[in-house]
From TrEMBL:
Keywords: Hydrolase, Metalloprotease, Protease
Protein's recorded name: TldD/PmbA family protein
Domain (Metalloprotease TldD/E N-terminal) ranges: 23-87
SUPFAM superfamilies assigned to the protein according to its UniProt record, in alphabetical order: Putative modulator of DNA gyrase, PmbA/TldD
Metalloprotease TldD/E central domain mapped to chain residues: 113-220
Amino acid sequence: MMLDRRVLGDVLAAALRRGGDFADIFVENRATTMVSCEENRIERVKTGIDSGAGVRVISGDTTAYAYTNKITADELIRVADIASRAAQVSERDVSIDLKAVQPTVDLDIAVMPDAVPIEDKTAVVAAADAAAREADARIKQVMVVYGDVIQDVTIANSLGRLVEDRRVRTRLAVNAVAAGDGQIQTGFEALGGTQGFELTKRDACEAVAREAARRAVAALDAKPAPAGRMTVVMAGAAGGTMVHEACGHGLEADLVQKGLSVYAGKRGEQVAASGITVVDDGTMPRRYGTLRFDDEGFPTGKTVLIADGVLKGFMYDYLTASRDKADPTGNGRRESFEHKPVPRMRNTYIAPGKEDPAAVIGSVKNGLLVKKMGGGQVNTVNGDFVFDVAEGYLIRDGKVSHAVRGATLTGNGPEVLRQIDMVGSDLGFSIGTCGKDGQGAPVSDAQPTIRIPEIVVGGTDHSGRP
C-alpha cells in the first residue's frame, strides 16, 4: 500500500498551497473478519476490506479534513485541495522532504490472521459456545463473537515524517445468559490484544466462555445488594474501567484545553493519594491499545500522567501539543481514514503498589468487593460518576461472603483517587472500544486491587446492613 514518496510530498504541498501551519495524510487499508455464534449455531461469517485516505490541514485554531476511498495521485491531490481551501491566505509554493521513520517497538505477531482458514476461526467460536453451555445446566443462551483486523497505514506530514505500519488485533467476546428461579442474569467476558491468531491457543477462548457462564450463574445465586456508604475493595480482576472513565478522559488534552476537565489548571498539584500513579502506555506487549505509532505518525511511549498523587501531564495529539508548546505523546488516534485524529487513551492503568491483594480484602470489616465493573456514566467537567457492578460480593470480618446483584457505585473520580489508602501488588486488565467524538478506538485499562474507605453504594436492600 506504500504510496510513492513523491506523490505523498505533492499531496502535502497541495494541502498547504493556500496557507496553513501543518498538513498530514493518513492512508489506510483494513482487512477484517468477524464470526458470530448464537442459538448454538454459527450465525454470521463476514470478511471485508476497507481502504481510503484522509488529508488534514491545520491553520491556527481551524482544522479542515477531507477524505476519499479512491487512492490515486489525482484523487488525493483533489482532496488535499478541498482541505486547503479552509486555510486560504495566499498562493505559495511548498516543498516537503519526507524521511521514513522506523519503529522502535516490535509487536511480535506469531500467527497472522489472514493465514488462518476461516474453518479454524469458526471452530474456535463453536468451541467457546460449547464450553459456556457445558459450564452449567442453567446457561440457556450464549453469544460468541470472534474478530480480527489487519490494518496497514501510511502516514506522512509536513514536518517531513513518513511512517508505514501494520497493526494486527484479535478479539473474542462471550455473553452468557443464565435462567433459574424465575429470573434471568447475564455474564460477559472478553479477550483481545495486539496479537494474531495465537490469542486463541491454550484453551484461552474456552476459559473466557467458562468465565462468562460462571458470572451469569453467580448472579442467579446473588442476594440484593445493600445500599449506603461503605468501604469498597476493587479487585484487580475488575479491570480499569474506573480509571479509564473517571480519570483517563479528564487527562486527554483537548478536554483540558476546552475547560471540560476537572484536571484543567492543576498540573503539579496533588490530585490523588500518595502512592497512586496513573500511566498511559502505547508500547505494552500484546495489549489491546498497543501501537508502534499513533494515527499521526508519532511514536507511542509510556506517559506518566499522575506520579505519586501529583498531576504531571496530559495525553496529547499534535494539535493540542502545539497549543501547549509541548511534545506530542503519541495519543493522536482515529477510528479510520474517515475521521480526524483526537487525543485518546491507549493502555491506561493505575500502577501496582506493594500490598498483598488478600491483605487488602482482609483489612475490611464490612464492605463490598467488586470483581467486575459494568457500564456507567461520567461527567468529565466535575468528575462525578455512576457505575454498575457486574459482579460483587460482601466482605464480612475480612472474608469474602455471598454474591450480591444490583449494586452501583456513585462518587467523584478525583475524590476517589484521593481516598485510596491501600494499593495491591497485582494488575488486572480489561479491554474495550472507547467512544469519543463519534469515533471508536480499541483500548485496554487496568488497576491493582485497591481499597476505597468510603463510597456510596446503591442497591435494592435498604436495611442498612452491609
